Amino acid sequence: MSAGTDHITLLSNRTYFASLFEAVGAAREELLAETYIFRFDRTGTEFVRLATEAVRRGVRVRMLVDALGSPELMGEGERRIREAGIELVVYNRTGRLPLRTLHDRMHRKLIVVDRRVAFVGGLNIADEYAGLDVPGSFYDLAARIQGPIAADAADRADELIMLARSSAVRRAWREIRRFRSTPLSSTGVMNRIVARDNHARRNTIEREYVQAIRGARRSILMAHAYFLPSHRLLKTLCAASRRGVEVRVVLQGRAEHTVLRAAQWHLYHRMLRAGVRVYEYQRHYLHAKVMTVDGRWSTIGSSNLEPWSLTSNHELNLISACPSLARDLEEEIEPRLETECTRIDPSRLGWFARLTSALSYELVLWVFVVTGGRSTRLWRTPPRSDRSRRDRSSDAAAVARRSVAVNPPDPARPRSADADDHA
Q1: What is the rounded CA–CA span in Å between residue 199 and residue 404?
Q2: CB 260 within 8 A of CB 226
Q3: pLDDT band at 377; cut points 50, 70, 90
Q4: Residue 303: how many CB atoms within 10 A of its CB?
Q5: Cα–chain-centroid distance for residue 228?
């Protein structure tokens, strides 16, 4: 599909690595790779083999991984990578306490070949992401982008690699200076690469979600592995359903982290009461992070909707107003709602389930704070007396606010920041 001058293809587990390996094998100048998890299994070994062949052809290969997510690349694994001629950069390899590293993670999944082809999504480089026939496999989605936006994705990778090689203090100042000199997102209205960090761009991805949901008129379809959104995001989603938008949310049914799934249940009652249709994906572990609005706006990337992704991790998403990509996402997910998902019945939310889910929710937020996370005030419902006049406004007023991404205005008119952005 074409979006402006960018050509975007939706990929699932079964097609992602075949397309990725083909692009890596054809690299001629540069290969940039960011992944949170890397394993030296069949998939990882094949990636390293192709990257090594690219180095022999004169291609510069740089690879950024997270120290917490890729322990196999510490020690012997790192030696193998470097001996192959690959420039390996390990994010957050400092001697900080392990708990503190939970709040400064390089969680992005991005591959850029020759600054002309980019792969953006939620798939790590490991066997469990490569196919749905592997025990413990994940169902995930990604986008292959060919066009000018790939060069923009490469610029984002360059910046993070530079920051990863800097000390913590210098990293913060560099991010602040970069924020002052470059836009929050890029490449115009049609397609944009949006990144978040812990210093200058803390709210970029959440803001894109909120603006798109506020602008929804007909439908919202969302699939997310880990779903503990901030109060503002959840409130906006429920408000959309109350004003007549069809809202469908697909979440993990097979629990990868039991406590997180139990905490997720704490939000079901509020969503169901607002008319949101909630599904749990049962066939595999759900790992996707995607949303479509009105069949013409979509996002796909690495960011979950939970405290760590929204306030602590380095994340990266593709934001697209290409109807073809939105339509492909709907055609990929909708058939699975009937065959591979269970729709949540309000009758299942008995008093015991609601009690245990509330306790799990509080436990997750407690762990988030104890391990060094930011305040959980963004996940708390504010007292009614503290709510702003705008928070108490009617759904009709919310309908009047339309997202720039979903309903693009005149390009000549400057885009303003969301007045509700938190620090």
Answers
A1: 25
A2: yes
A3: low
A4: 29
A5: 13
